[in-house]
Specification:
InterPro entries: AB_hydrolase_fold (IPR029058). The chain is of the alpha+beta class and 100 residues long. Helix content is 27%, strand content 15%. It has one domain. It is built from two helices and three strands; from the N terminus they run αβββα. The protein has a three-stranded antiparallel beta sheet, with helices on one face. 12% of the residues are buried.
Length: 100
């Protein structure tokens, strides 16, 4: 039950981030993985101050997404209580480069 509550909290937080302006985010660290992926939108890997135990993969230029061109969200859990994205950074970066 605790894991389910944690997952729903994460979904709500990500939904809020998807509708908020990027100026509200306090980026601690930003990194480009594999030249930003092969998709239409060059992607970045971000550590954000309000989510210190999470990593965000998103298109680098968020200005192209707005009310008419919304950004879909994929919530990824590594499983087994493991809180590191390093085993999957190439995969998650590639998805982000396609606008997710």
């Amino acid at each position: 039950m605790k894991q389910l509550k944690k997952m729903w909290t994460m979904i709500v937080v990500l939904a809020i981030f998807s509708t908020a302006k990027t100026s509200f985010c306090q980026v601690i660290n930003i990194r480009t993985v594999e030249q930003g992926g092969t998709g239409r939108y060059s992607a970045v890997m971000i550590t954000e101050a309000s989510l210190p135990t999470h990593t965000i993969f998103r298109p680098k230029d968020m200005r192209i997404f707005n009310e008419r061109n919304k950004l879909p969200i994929i919530v990824w859990g590594n499983g087994a209580c493991y809180d590191s994205p390093w085993e999957h950074i190439n995969f998650l970066n590639e998805i982000a480069s396609h606008g997710f």
